[in-house]
Structure formats: structure tokens, C-alpha cells
């Protein structure tokens, strides 16, 4: 602005030719005449920069659409532009919506979203786990910690999710991480949705017993009898169950902070979240479909009676005693009291070495010379009291 004012003063002084003045200020004659015309028309105010915004924009976003998007963002502050776009397209199919990227820019200008710093991710070096190939190929289960409702009682949210479709099967408030409380929830889900191929969990109770062969707990033994293979992640590696942990982040923000007044009120929050997560909230990994659009129940029904465990004909079959041991020829070999009353199969894989199976799961290797079953982590069989 100061330089333009100086240009006008020198150009109108008559001390130099107009070409010399333009050359001195490093502009063309056309630009010089433009500033003179603006000064003649509006005085010093004409020397300010003018907006390049067009007088009209035929493809501008309809204000009604923007207001609906802003309102949806205010009601669901954890939804991004892609989810908002999908939801608006469902609610108002006749609207000519802008693309999610344009919608995101409008949300930024309105101060309803913030720019996030891109975080470079690194692949996890742990052991590979079974892939999610179809609905019910893998369910994941976990507890979202514990907290007190406002009446002072502890609440332990037990959550189960289908890994392929992200369908949230259950979010149940229970008294603790006990076998009996968990089995009631799993029984209800097995009757409603059928039997999955695997269930992925961490190594905490009641899913796993770290001191037992195969890390099996009473709950995991029951799963195997039903034809479900436990899929334990590595210790201290929640990223191996990342989809479930990501869902827990939404659960905590939407249903647990602040806690409800009592257990019943908290469960009503969980039920509302369950419906919203499965039927309303679109998911980027599902091409913006909802989990309910993708999930189908399992074709494997929950049996009224536990099916027997069958082993190949060349296996040696032994029944585990109530104190957790098996008789092997003249020796007594300790296994796990959690398998008391169950049948295990033994397959000879080398001289004096037998692989010990419970159903399809290899628990370890019986070394005749040591008189012990060695698990895959190198520890000997013990009899944990869990």
C-alpha cells in the first residue's frame, strides 16, 4: 500500500516520464495505468487489494446442506466428513451433496473440526494372527476396564465384536471378570448369533490362564468343546486386537464419561450405543456401510449338549483326572486341573516325545525322559489354581 501511494505521487508529479516511473517500480505500463485508474475512481482506498472472490458461484454448497452438516457434527462430534456425508445421503437422498473433501473444508472453516497431524505408522513385529475372512471367522472379546457408577457399584463392560463386519455383538455391564458372568453372556450370544470359528482375546481372566498349558482357562476349555478355537494375542500387545481397542475408544467417550447413576441406567446407555454403532454409524473400512449391512449370523448353531472330542485313530487318548494329571504307562504326568474330566490326545512325533492335544489345539510336548509336558514357551506343565 505504501509503495503504491509513492508510485501515484511520482507518476502525477511530472518530473519523470510515465515509462521511467513504471520501470523504477518494476511494473508494466498496463499495471501502472490500472493503479492510476483506481486512484482516480476511489482515491487512496482504491489502492487496497481487492477480493478475487467471484460475484456468484453456481456450484456453491447450499446453505441448507451446510446447516444440516454442521448440526449433525454438533450432535456427533466424533464423526468426520465421510460419515456425515453418508448419513446425509441416507436421510436426504434428493440433495445434491458436495463430496466429503469439500464438506470437510466447510467444517474446518466453521471451526467444527481441527487439522490432525499425520502420524507415521510402523508395522507390528509380533507374530501374525489369523485373518478376518468372513463374518464369524473371528470374534474379539475384552473388558473395557472397570469404573464405578454414581451409586458406588463397580461396572465391568464385557464387549464382543465380529472382526470382519465390526458388528458389535454385545456390550454388557457385569459384576466382574468371572467365569460364570462371562459364560452367561457368551451363552446368550451363541444362541442368538451362532458359533464363530475363533475368539480373539488378551491373556487376562476369564479368557486365559497364563500358567496353564496352552494358556487355557475354564472359559477357553468350554469354547474348545463347542468347536471354537481360542486366539490369544501376545502378552502386553493390545495392538494385535486393534479393531476392538478402537471400538473401546468410542465406547468410553460415548457411554462411560460421565458414568450413569446405576447399573441399569448404564446398561441402557450401552444398548443405545450398540444400536447406533451397528445400524447408524457408517464405517470407512466397510465402504461406508454400517456393520449391520455386512454382518450375518453364523450357520453353526449352539448345541444343546457338548459334542465329544474325536481324535485320529493313531492318537493315544487319555482322560485327565480331577487333580490335573494323566497316567502314562507307569508314570503320572501333570497336565492341568482345568482339563479335569476331559480327554486329551497324544501323537508321537519323535522317540520319547509326544505332542499333547486338546481338541485341535496343541498344548505342548510330553518328554518321556523328563516326565513332563513342555509348552511352546519352554515352561513345564503346572497345576494353576485359577
Explain briefly what this protein structure is:
The chain is an alpha+beta fold and 386 residues long. Helices cover 33% and strands 18% of the residues.
Key structural traits:
five-stranded antiparallel beta sheet, six-stranded mixed beta sheet, 386 residues, alpha+beta, Nucleotidyltransferase, domain 5, elongated, 11 helices
Outline the structure in words.
- The chain is of the alpha+beta class and 386 residues long.
- It folds into four domains: 2-47; 63-109; 138-294, Nucleotidyltransferase, domain 5 (2-Layer Sandwich), CATH 3.30.420; 316-374, no CATH class.
- Helix content is 33%, strand content 18%.
- Strands 1, 2, 3, 4, 5 and 6 form a six-stranded mixed β-sheet that branches.
- Strand 2 (147-148) and strand 3 form a beta hairpin.
- It starts with a helix and ends in a 12-residue tail after the last strand.
- The model is unreliable at 119-128 and 382-386 (pLDDT under 50).
Amino acid at each position: 500500500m505504501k509503495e503504491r501511494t509513492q508510485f501515484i505521487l511520482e507518476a502525477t508529479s511530472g518530473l519523470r516520464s510515465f515509462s521511467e516511473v513504471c520501470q523504477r517500480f518494476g511494473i508494466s505500463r498496463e499495471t501502472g495505468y490500472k493503479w492510476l485508474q483506481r486512484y482516480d475512481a476511489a482515491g487512496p482506498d482504491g489502492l487496497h487489494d481487492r477480493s478475487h472472490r467471484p460475484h456468484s458461484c453456481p456450484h456453491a454448497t447450499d446453505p441448507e446442506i451446510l446447516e444440516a452438516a454442521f448440526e449433525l457434527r454438533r450432535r456427533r462430534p466424533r464423526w468426520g466428513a465421510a460419515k456425515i456425508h453418508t448419513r446425509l445421503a441416507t436421510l436426504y437422498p434428493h440433495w445434491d451433496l458436495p463430496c466429503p473433501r469439500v464438506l470437510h473444508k466447510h467444517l474446518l472453516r466453521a471451526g467444527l473440526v481441527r487439522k490432525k497431524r499425520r502420524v507415521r505408522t510402523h508395522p507390528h513385529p509380533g507374530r501374525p494372527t489369523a485373518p478376518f475372512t468372513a463374518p464369524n471367522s473371528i470374534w474379539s472379546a475384552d473388558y473395557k476396564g472397570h469404573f464405578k457408577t454414581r451409586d458406588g457399584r463397580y461396572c465391568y463392560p464385557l464387549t464382543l465384536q465380529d472382526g470382519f463386519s465390526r458388528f458389535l455383538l454385545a456390550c454388557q455391564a457385569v459384576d466382574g471378570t468371572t467365569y460364570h458372568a462371562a459364560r452367561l453372556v457368551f451363552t446368550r450370544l451363541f444362541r442368538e448369533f451362532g458359533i464363530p470359528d475363533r475368539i480373539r482375546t488378551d491373556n487376562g481372566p476369564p479368557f486365559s490362564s497364563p500358567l496353564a498349558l496352552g494358556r487355557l482357562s475354564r472359559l477357553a476349555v468350554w469354547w474348545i468343546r463347542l468347536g471354537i478355537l481360542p486366539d490369544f494375542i501376545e502378552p502386553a500387545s493390545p495392538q494385535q486386537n486393534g479393531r476392538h481397542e478402537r471400538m473401546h475408544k468410542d465406547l468410553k467417550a460415548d457411554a462411560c464419561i460421565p458414568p450413569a447413576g446405576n447399573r441399569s441406567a448404564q446398561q441402557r446407555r450401552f444398548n443405545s450405543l450398540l444400536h447406533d454403532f451397528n445400524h447408524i454409524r457408517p464405517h470407512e473400512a466397510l465402504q461406508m456401510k454400517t456393520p449391520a449391512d455386512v454382518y450375518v449370523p453364523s450357520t453353526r448353531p449352539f448345541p444343546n449338549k457338548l459334542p465329544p472330542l474325536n481324535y485320529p485313530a493313531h492318537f493315544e487318548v487319555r482322560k485327565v483326572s480331577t487333580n490335573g494329571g494323566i497316567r502314562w504307562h507307569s508314570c503320572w504326568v501333570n497336565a492341568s486341573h482345568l482339563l479335569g474330566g476331559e480327554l486329551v490326545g497324544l501323537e508321537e512325533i519323535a522317540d520319547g516325545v509326544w505332542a499333547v492335544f486338546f481338541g485341535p489345539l496343541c498344548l505342548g510336548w510330553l518328554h518321556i525322559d523328563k516326565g513332563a509336558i513342555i509348552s511352546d514357551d519352554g515352561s513345564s506343565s503346572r497345576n494353576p489354581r485359577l
